[in-house]
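Journal club side-thread
Mid-discussion, someone asked how the predicted structure for our own chain would compare to the paper's figures. Pasting it here so we can look after the session.
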Amino acid sequence: MMISIPSILLGMGGKCLLDWALVFPQRSNICKSLLGVFSVSLAVVDTTLTLFVTSLHMHADGYVFLLGLKLTRYHVCLLVQIFGQVCNALQWPVLVTAGCDHFFTVTRRLQTITGRSRLIVRLFVSGLLWYLTALYVFLLSDFLPVMEDVSHDQIQQCWIFHTTQILQVAMFLLLTLGCAALHAGWSTRCLKNPPLKEQFTDQSRAHSRRDAVHQAICMFLNTWAPFLCFLAVLLLAPVGIPAYLGLNVAWLCFLNSLLIAVALCAVCPASQITQGLQALPPDSFCEWRFQFILAGEDRT
């Protein structure tokens, strides 16, 4: 779709404000997870690109020289298209790496690694994700920029690609959450009438897992149900989401909560959760620790 350059710059500026508005309040614990470190890097990249393309567009001569290269409004469109493709390609790698980070955190398999070492590893992984994704877009993907056949000083609009990965990622995680709920319910149903007394422990574990799944899903939906409705309307609308806006800190915060819910449903019954709440990744939107403590007190 064709979007005017001022509208692109306005959208990117609004995205930068949203990024920093979500990053700044979480500054005390945002670097305690891979998604938090990546959110900071995304805010920095968004801000740098927005300032650069805005200054390039607003330049009186219509072009600037940088490192011996003549940059014009063609490059505004080109940079925005490249950045959109990079953001589109980053969706699944970020999901997979963040899911592994959450799994290892929830299962407390990173206790032997110091906090500074974990931060260094997360910084390295975030930088590696940006680097490898950029290489993929330039060298391996079938990306071809779409430019207007006019003089650079007459360009007023840019062709912008739609994001195609957000719906896939959201549906995959929600289906995973649903499968975890069905598995917990089926396990409890199978052990409802155990033939032997020795199966009492297994029945208790199944009930505990079912309770944990139910609590995790309820906590997630109580916080993110309006966002899910907004996302469904936005993705089903005929307009679509520009690729350069698809990857933002608000989306990463949603993924963080959803990945925590999936990890809790997959690996921990309620009894283990209440004993190891400090291992949960930081989440500024869902009060996982507080809610599970209240649920544990209600059961006792």
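Post-session note: Residues 2-299 form one domain.
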